[in-house]
């Protein structure tokens, strides 16, 4: 019997293969490999999908965060507040601007940034707050925005998610189209969303060598542009994203029913007002590493998002933190386990996951 994969990119590709092949042929025929028409078309389509005024395609999600922060003026001598429970790229993007990450702990129920801890983290050098919309749902944006600090949303895991009917709250939002995302490219890609024409222009300048006119450079920029072939992939998948997110919600509800009442298992919770898109289905279990090994032996592939918090990473030892500084994040890091989740997961695969988890526990 075949293993249950953690994510099945082949099934998603099969659904869009003919459309993407035709798009690739179109790009190859025109040789418009950089800044081709599909890039602009995708930017308009994704902006409309997200309820944003502008979308600027870039080379990766990490670049998207960095360029969004730079557009707001983040740099040396400034600070950016972000949750301790996130992928390293969130803090990495801050450091790449020259600013300093300031970490705060997360709430124990949803593992999202805890707004009540922001007051102690905000200071005179705070340039931005970066809430992370983790696992497929938005952080509590009203409470975060209430502090009056510019917000850059890390929306890499929340494509299509909303809160109280809105998808964009911050001055800017950055997303990743890494292949395993709800909207995934066939390589690295990302985008910045904003309602501000000025900020969109600033991001676009920064990502294209500081230039709007060839060989005239208004500012020092970078080379971070969305590849035309990736735009073809993203356009094809975007047409299916609402349906695919709906399938994820059905799968999440089925997991909740299958795993309800299972001793020692804490199921993920959807925060009030959120429309969750279930990028990941993250449970919490004791003896997590042992459970994961046993599941792997039974052919169930899982993930851990994330096993080592940022403040305990060797790369961030200069922040001066020690074990115990962010207790909710640290406890979660020993318990969280991401189960297989993708739009094409079958009921039989979910049944196998639930059966194996009972045995593993």
TrEMBL record:
<dbReference type="InterPro" id="IPR015421">
    <property type="entry name" value="PyrdxlP-dep_Trfase_major"/>
</dbReference>
<keyword id="KW-0808">Transferase</keyword>
<protein>
    <submittedName>
        <fullName>DegT/DnrJ/EryC1/StrS family aminotransferase</fullName>
    </submittedName>
</protein>
<keyword id="KW-0032">Aminotransferase</keyword>
<dbReference type="GO" id="GO:0008483">
    <property type="term" value="F:transaminase activity"/>
</dbReference>
<comment type="similarity">
    <text>Belongs to the DegT/DnrJ/EryC1 family.</text>
</comment>
<dbReference type="InterPro" id="IPR015422">
    <property type="entry name" value="PyrdxlP-dep_Trfase_small"/>
</dbReference>
<dbReference type="Pfam" id="PF01041">
    <property type="entry name" value="DegT_DnrJ_EryC1"/>
</dbReference>
<dbReference type="InterPro" id="IPR015424">
    <property type="entry name" value="PyrdxlP-dep_Trfase"/>
</dbReference>
<dbReference type="InterPro" id="IPR000653">
    <property type="entry name" value="DegT/StrS_aminotransferase"/>
</dbReference>
<keyword id="KW-0663">Pyridoxal phosphate</keyword>
């Amino acid at each position: 019997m075949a293993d249950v994969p953690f994510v099945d990119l082949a099934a998603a590709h099969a659904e869009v293969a003919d459309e993407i092949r035709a798009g690739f042929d179109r790009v190859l025929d025109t040789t418009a490999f950089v800044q081709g028409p599909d890039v602009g078309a995708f930017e308009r389509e994704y902006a409309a999908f997200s309820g944003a005024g502008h979308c600027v395609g870039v080379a990766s999600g990490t670049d998207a965060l960095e360029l969004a922060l730079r557009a707001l003026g983040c740099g040396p001598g400034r600070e950016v507040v972000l949750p301790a429970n996130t992928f390293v790229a969130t803090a990495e993007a801050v450091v790449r601007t020259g600013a300093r990450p300031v970490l705060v702990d997360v709430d124990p129920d949803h593992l999202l940034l805890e707004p009540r801890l922001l007051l102690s983290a905000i200071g005179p050098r705070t340039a931005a707050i970066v809430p992370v919309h983790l696992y497929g749902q938005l952080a509590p944006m009203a409470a975060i925005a209430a502090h009056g600090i510019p917000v850059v949303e890390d929306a890499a895991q929340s494509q299509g998610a909303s809160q109280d009917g809105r998808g964009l709250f911050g001055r800017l939002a950055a997303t990743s189209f890494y292949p395993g995302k709800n909207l995934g490219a066939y390589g690295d890609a990302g985008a910045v969303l904003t309602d501000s024409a000025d900020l969109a222009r600033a991001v676009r300048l920064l990502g294209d060598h500081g230039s709007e006119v060839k060989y005239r450079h208004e500012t020092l920029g970078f080379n971070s542009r969305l590849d035309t072939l990736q735009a073809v992939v993203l356009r094809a998948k975007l047409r299916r994203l609402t349906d695919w997110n709906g399938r994820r919600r059905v799968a999440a509800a089925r997991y909740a029913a299958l795993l309800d009442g299972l001793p020692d298992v804490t199921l993920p919770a959807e925060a009030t007002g959120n429309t969750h898109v279930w990028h990941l289905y993250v449970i919490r279990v004791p003896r997590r590493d042992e459970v994961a090994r046993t599941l792997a032996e039974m052919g169930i592939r899982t993930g851990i998002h994330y096993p080592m918090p940022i403040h305990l990473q060797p790369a961030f030892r200069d922040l001066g933190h020690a074990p115990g500084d962010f207790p909710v994040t640290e406890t979660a890091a020993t318990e969280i386990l991401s189960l297989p989740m993708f739009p094409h997961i079958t009921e039989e695969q979910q049944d196998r996951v639930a059966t194996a988890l009972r045995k593993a526990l």
